[in-house]
Amino acid sequence: METGTGTVTLFVVSLFMIIVALILLIAALKKGFFNSVHQDAYIPFSDDEPVGKPTDQLFEDDNKSVE
Predict the structure, then answer these.
(1) CA-to-CA distance for 62 and 59, rounded, in angstroms?
(2) CA proximity to 40, closest of 54, 57, 27, 32
(3) Element counts in the chain: helices (H) and strands (E)
(4) Which of 16, 27, 45, 63 is the most buried (most CB within 10 A)?
(5) How far lies 2's CA from each of 6, 8, 63, in Å?
């Protein structure tokens, strides 16, 4: 069974992309980019739209009858 040039090229490119992704992940961890993920998750919320209270409704309330 012969391995084509395209298969080898695809394997090398995939391996290169995985190595680059791991290097970038390690660099981000060392620089502390993931230290405040929990705190940064609350940035979109404010007093007008508090956490845990849905303010945008796609459907009408269940208490209202549909006519």
Answers:
(1) 9
(2) 32
(3) 2, 0
(4) 45
(5) 11, 11, 68
Question: For residue 62, which phi and psi values (nearest 5 degrees)?
Answer: -65, -25
Q: What angle do CA 8, 27, 41 make, to 5 degrees?
A: 110
Measured distance CA(38)–CA(49) in Å, rounded:
18
For 7-62, what is each residue's pLDDT tens digit?
Answer: 999 999 999 999 999 999 999 999 999 898 888 778 877 777 777 777 776 766 65
Q: Six-digit token pair at 15?
A: 């391996």
Q: What is the rounded distance in angstroms from the CA atom of residue 18 to the CA atom of residue 60?
A: 47
φ, ψ for residue 57 (rounded to 5)?
-115, 130
Tokens of 14: 């995939």
